[in-house]
Amino acid sequence: MSSSSSSSSSSSSLKKYDVFLSFRGDTRHTFTDHLYTNINKKGLIYTFKDDYELQRGEIIAPALFKAIEDSRIAIVVLSEEYASSTWCLKELTKIVECLGTSENILPIFYHVDPSDLRKHTGSFGKALKEHEQSGKHDPAEIQQWKDALEAVANMAGSTVEEKKTHEAKFIDDFVNITLSQKLGIPSTKTLSGLFGMESRLKKLESLLVKSAASGDDDAHFIAIYGMSGIGKSTLARTYYDGKRMSDKFNGNSFLANVREVCEKNENGLVRLQKQLLQDILGVSFEIGDVSTGVELIKGRLRRKRVIVVLDDVDSVEQLNALAEEDKWFGKGSIIIVTTKNQSLLSKKFQRYEAEVLNPSEALQLFTWKAFETARPPNDYIELSKQVVKDANGHPLALQVFGSFLRHKDMKEWESALEIWKRYSKEDIVKRLKISFDALEKLNKHIFLDIACFFNGYDRDYVAEILKIRYGLSPQSVIGTLIDKSLLSTQGGNHRSLRMHDLLQKMAKDIVRNESSDEPGRQSRLWDWSEFCHVLDNNTGTEKVEAIVTFQKESTGLSFEAISNMKRLKLLMILDSPETESDYGLTSVNLEYLSNDLRLLHWNGFPFKNFPSSFRPNELVQLTLIQSNLEHLWNSSIKPLRNLKVIDLRYSGYFHTFGDFKAVPNLERLILEGCVALSEIHPSITSLSKLIILNLKDCSSLESFPETLRGLNSLQTLNLNGCSKLSKLPEDIGDLKSLRKLGVTGSGVNYLPSSINLNKDLEKQFIEEIQYLPPPIVQDNLPSDLRYLKKLDLSRRNLSNEAFPYEFGCLISLEDLDLCGNPFSALPPSIKALSKLKKLNLEFCQRLTSLGPELPSSLEMVNVNCCTSLESFLDPTKPNHDMRCSAFCVVCLKLVEKQDSQMTAIAALERYLSQQNSHHSSQCFQIVLPGNEIPEWFTEKSSGSSISKELNPDWSRKEFEGLALAVRYRSEYPRVNFLCKMRVDDRKVVMARHYHSYVGDSDHLWLLFVPCDTLSMFDSRGRNLKISFRAEHCDDSFCGPCGVRLVYKKDIEELNKITSNYRNDQQGYHVHSSRSKSEAIVSSSSTKFKKLAISSTPKIVKAHLPSGDLRSIRELDLSGQNLSNEAFPDDFDRLFSLEDLNLNNNPFSALPKSIKALSKLKKLSLEHCERLRSLGPELPSSLEMVSVDYCTSLESFLDPKVPNDIHCSAFCVDCFKLVERQDSKTTAFGALKGYLKNRRHSSQGFNIVLPGKEIPEWFTEQSSGPSISKKLNPDWCDNVFEGFAFAVCFGSDSPDHFSWHVRVDDKKSEMAMGLGGYKGSSSHHLWLVFVPCDGDYTPMLEWEDSRGNLEISFHAKTSDESCFTSCGVRLVYKKDIDRFNQFTWT
């Protein structure tokens, strides 16, 4: 960035985005897309375009509005359809509110006349009129939209006229002139470091094409190698940035400065492994060593297509730890490595040697740095060409020398060139030093400090330390170093300071050359080994002015050498991130400590006291974390007027601060975890500038000043965990600046009356209080906490009787946390909290009911894990004022008492019933145990996503919003579930739900997204896709799902459904009819889920009731003496039926109407001894059929007859079946059908039938009850489908059989059983398939195993001799593909 821009944009440099782009969908794929692409090419401009940048958040509006607030300027593309979107109008209003003037807003009037905005005519006037007539929007809000349109119309914008403006040229000029000047950024062609980038990117892409053309579909490895400063990292970063946003990749990671990270950190490789996994998976892993990290990378990333850059690698160990093999990553992954040493690279790498700039590119780069133009002035052309020729195309040398020559006259140029030519083209470092030598003294010092201590650190952090060191702000110096290309910024918002490794080496060599043989005579020490050398040999001298180092061990060291460093100003002995703290205690006192110290930060300070001569009058910050210090200064010391920060956290021996008058200007005092501290000296009230007082977990603190008068600036007082502190000063409420007070876990059991703030302090109130320790007996709240917004009473052992009498005084309370308390009911007074929005009742395990006592203002109630809760949002009760979102995870008793589906539907109906309430623009959610999508949802899918083609007028006037529902599995804790919505090609994360509990029950997540939120989508879109997923889990965790577009008439339908449900909930019953020859099922309502018919002597004809049977899931007709003629004719009405029990009936065939049961999963026909055949009449949805002891059955799953039945089957003692159909052929044919048509990805497969031979297809067989197999290294790759087992058994007695699987020494075992086997004299064959992604398969534990697979079969009551043989086969995709080629001999 130019010098002019760096100063002018200093105030805006803290913004997250340079540009916020506002537009309507009618320009998305044309003008706006070209504009966005052109802006992106600049590289240095960070643009927010919501369909690319908006990734998170439950509610969309706050995220977009925050993006507007975080943007420097806004570009508004005002098109014909812009005002038809209320979303765009709200966006524009926010832009005008935040950015205000034409200086920060760039309007583009695309095919519209600005006067239409000003006068509300044309398409803008029409749209505004429609919004007014819809009745959905407040008139005041519409007026705000009009005002915003007028404001933008009066700005000096750019106009694009239809069929007149050359749009490509307009965009090019707009970006490179208008926008670039506004942001102070050079045009695209003159971007520093990006000259010639396009041609190099093409060459890099050609290597990828070459790798793909080789036919290898595994990960692609590309290496960029070459000398330092030639642009390897820039090329890799540019290529990475262009690829990482692609939908083709599941994740991305750029590991910068690998060599430096490994040099600076003892466990640098572990740190990089953690970052790699965190970047791609979004999960932080605990990694003990490199080998553990390798296993995690291989196991977790092997099925993910990723793009990864390993920048500046200099050892094979680094490659082996981070990306040794292509099988570590999913197919199509791209791994890019930059290195100076190509000998590290194996044959798998496609190699690209980074090229120096050609003369034309080099001249452009140098000219931009020297003159900030694309072409040098005529007088300087020849001189510029000389520099370019001598630089040999080296980008870093050109940048630094060009920046050095900027603003210099001709004589200065000629003089500098003479020095430049003294050094050879190869001696880059000496040429770079020319720029350093020309710096002013302070600039040199700061440059060396950053190079030696703070390369890669946050700019603000570095500036704070350097300000303390030099007594003035270093920001202008940092800006100068950036301007001279001696320093750059990287990372989000460009907040990280980065110095090129060649420049850093130059700087460190400058310091080391101060005393090449003795580091104790250098001005700066940073290397721990060199620091230890100085300590061990006591060679410290007055030359040392700054020490910043990371200690790797501290025991056994003598720090006497520090006593000799009389001019030491900066001393920072820090903990290495990867090294556990093991501080020693020394009985030796430090003889001397420099009185010139300005900043002393020493983790694990080993001394009990400071030297008696220590008078640090210049000290600004004292940080001694986990120190052995016992006390600080008393009144005898001369006041340390510069000291502003004291941080002694977790100093376990610290017990006394003698007199606070010694530090009169202290602003922050942090004594957290000082467990020996028993009192706070009354002189603390002299600290009128103290802002933060942190005494958290000072467990011995008993004595606190009786008054705090004098602490006029105190904003935060943290007394949490001060268990021996029993009371607060009575005048604490008089602290006008106090904002946060914490006494959670302390001995304080009431707040002083002074906390009742008076009317004169309306804008200076306490907004958040955590207080009241356990146990609590009846306690009153202060009577005037009118401004309290958040109250935390979590885990306070609150019983029913312990609630404060009056909650009514908390008139401003918005957030109440009562989680983890033992009360069984809330007090009626909670109804008075008229502004309460959020109520947290998690883990209130005695709470039994909720309802009428809750205030109508609530927007969210959390009752997760309230295991005794039986009544909440009861659908059988009339509407009350509860219209909030609700989270009821693991509330199993609730759904036992209340129908899960109807509870969710009724809650939605309540929410929708008041469209004009303050909830109307809020999204709605409810989560509770359940596994079925309500029938009200018109579109359903059995998977985790659903698509729908939209009608042309889908977003018409009556449109209210979108209702969504999904069932998800909750077997793992801490899982983020996401809901994504796509209309045409625009995709947004609409909502997320964090499930933090483990359980074996499925849950229903139902959402409603109002139309206002959906207005960000193009109303003319035609293709809607909703997808649900669990982060870092496979798709099987979510599904089925449903969607419904909701219009006003649908809300009326919801009202009727819930009203009918409430009117009659007596349930269905079954009774005998007027005669014994007829069974009639009757009902007193219209819906039920489970139906059982009581036994009758003989049924001639069974009738189903005439009511609505849509909700029936289970039907039990077992033992009803049903003949062929007695089946109901209208089975097809049971279209939701999933489980049908027809056991022990005398029919010989099933009716054809059973085929219509399209959701039937389980069919039980045991002991139907006259049943002769099964097949084409069965629905394809079946997952399990049991025909045990159907002794007449002759045909079922016939391998010679094509059918679409691919379910598990249990055929115990079906001897006639295997007489007609070969046992092995039937079993293997059923397995083939299942595998080739596997829909239920998490469902396994079983078949049992008479037989005593294992099919030959099983490659490993054994004559006993167990079998072992050696696993190949890549046995669990991404084409692995699962395990197939087979066993033959025989037993005359009833038994329960099971199988167990063990891989290596993993403790995880699977045990599933064939239960209820009644015994038989004949042998049976049991064949099993367990999918790799199954519900009971711990693949995450097994997939990295490389040893043995063991399968064993067990009988509960018999010995294992009943198992005569067994077999196993690992099944891969190729095995399934070859099924058609397999024949029996």
UniProtKB/TrEMBL annotation:
PROSITE patterns attached here?
Answer: TIR (PS50104)
According to UniProt, the name of this protein is ADP-ribosyl cyclase/cyclic ADP-ribose hydrolase
UniProt cross-references to PANTHER family, sorted A to Z:
LEUCINE-RICH REPEAT-CONTAINING PROTEIN, TMV RESISTANCE PROTEIN N-LIKE
What enzyme category does the UniProt record give?
Answer: hydrolase
The record, for SUPFAM superfamilies, names: L domain-like, P-loop containing nucleoside triphosphate hydrolases, Toll/Interleukin receptor TIR domain
Q: What is its EC number?
A: 3.2.2.6
Q: Which InterPro entries match?
A: Apaf_helical, C-JID, Disease_R_plants, Leu-rich_rpt_typical-subtyp, LRR_dom_sf, NB-ARC, P-loop_NTPase, RPS4B/Roq1-like_LRR
Is this entry keyworded Membrane?
A: no
| One GO molecular-function entry | ADP binding
Keyword annotations for this protein, in alphabetical order, are: Hydrolase, Leucine-rich repeat, NAD, Plant defense, Repeat
Q: Which reaction equations make up its catalytic activity?
A: NAD(+) + H2O = ADP-D-ribose + nicotinamide + H(+)
Q: Can you give the residue ranges of the TIR domain?
A: 15-182
User: Its GO biological process terms?
Assistant: defense response; signal transduction
Does the record bear NAD in its keywords? yes
